[in-house]
Structure formats: structure tokens, C-alpha cells
Amino acid sequence: VQLQASGGGLAQTGGSLRLSCAASGRTSSIYRMGWFRQAPGKEREFVATIRWRADSTYYVDSVKGRFFISKDKAQNTMYLQMNSLKPEDTAVYYCAADRNAGNWNDYWGQGTQVTVSS
User: Bridge-partner residues for 10, per DSSP?
Assistant: First the structure.
């Protein structure tokens, strides 16, 4: 499975951005997909996840109520709608996919930069 993330950019505080992650290859093997982010000088952190064959989602507390993860299985694409952006959301965002409920070791896309200005 190959993952291609896009949609990053520059936003002002309070603004919105939508990230996309297009999956290709053996997408039938996907169990779940998710978004992670890494800010400068910090470790990569989990942001949100969605089951590929179900509707369950889960978010890190810091983005609950502001970020919304969704998918379009027909397009093999996952999205992250980011609203009410804060400067602390500035990071490189990565999409990932797992074949089971493991440790996110299976598939990773390249990062897309999100910068939120104050």
C-alpha cells in the first residue's frame, strides 16, 4: 500500500485546512488509517484514526471538537478536516495505515507541512 498525503499549507489562527491521504495498491489489506504529526523539536504524536471498514474514530484530546477524520472508500482516500487551528497545530502531518490493530508499523505516507500563524 502506498499513501500520498496532500493539502497542507499556511493558515491563520482560527482558520481551517483539509488534508487528504490517497491510498493505492492493496487497499483491501487496510484495517485502519490515521494521522500523526511532528512539530519541530518534538516527537511524532498521534492525532486521529478511523477504521477502514467501520465508522469508528478516535482523536487525541487536543484536537477533539476541532479536527474531524473521514474517509471515502470509493476513492481510497482519508481526510482530516482541521478547524479552529491554533499555532500549536503547526507540524508536519503524516498519514499511516495498518493491516491490524498494531503499532502503526505497516504503511506511512510522506509528510505535509501545516503552519498556523498567530
Answer: 115
Among candidate residues 22, 42, 48, 49, the one with its CA nearest the CA of residue 90: 42
Closest CA to 3 of 28, 27, 21, 26: 21
Cα separation of 80 and 103, whole Å?
20
Q: Which of 111, 89, 82 is nearest to 3 (CA)?
A: 111
- For the stretch 59-105, pLDDT in tens is 999 999 999 999 999 999 999 999 999 999 999 999 999 999 888 88
Residues 6 or more apart in contact with residue 11 via CB below 8 angstroms: 17, 85, 114, 115, 116, 117
pLDDT tens figures, 13-59: 999 999 999 999 999 999 999 999 999 999 999 999 999 999 899 99
Any idea of the CA torsion for 57, 104, 77, 11, to the nearest 10 degrees?
80
